[in-house]
Input
Amino acid sequence: MKDTRKIVQALTYFASKQEGHELDNMKAYKLLWLADRSHLRLYGRFISNDTYYAMPFGPVPSDAKQLLENHATHLANDEEYKKSYIQTLGKKYKAIKEPDMRVFSDSDREVLDKVLALFNGLNAKELSDFSHTFPEWKKYQPLIDGKETKKSYPIDVDLFFEPSEATTFFDESQEILALTKELYHQYNRPAPPLHLPR
Output
């Protein structure tokens, strides 16, 4: 079972850097996506360990969305832990105390700060439009824009390693990406089937 601490603390950290410590949910999803995308490409893992879905407004971290919309999740320590840091306010939320930065590694903090420095000046719609230029959303755009009633598709994580012309923020070399992609798959390989004795 995944732990909710890093998701909650990332959301708290982003909100703590806003005026009044309040943040639009969609903007938070996009900031978390940018941080996870960057950290994955540099270090072979997400910061949040969340699962991403392509939705009409771009890539969305599903557990973060469930938490901010007060829906049940499969995460450990989700609701009470969240309530001790975050107050949900409809389509916004508020950080009600300082984030616990001890849950983050040095590389986590470095990437979170870099994302805030580069992208915090954009509003939710601007970040949503920006996210539509990335391969992890564009692959699913025909399905999302089509006549299907389903508007949410699990994203193939390998698409996060694909290039984007939208920004120079993701300018890792092909050598680095090959290594971090291999590292990601090494630690996220499905467990072999268990063969029970007959």
Strands lie at 22-24, 52-55, 58-61, 86-89, 92-95, 153-154. Residues 5-187 form one domain.
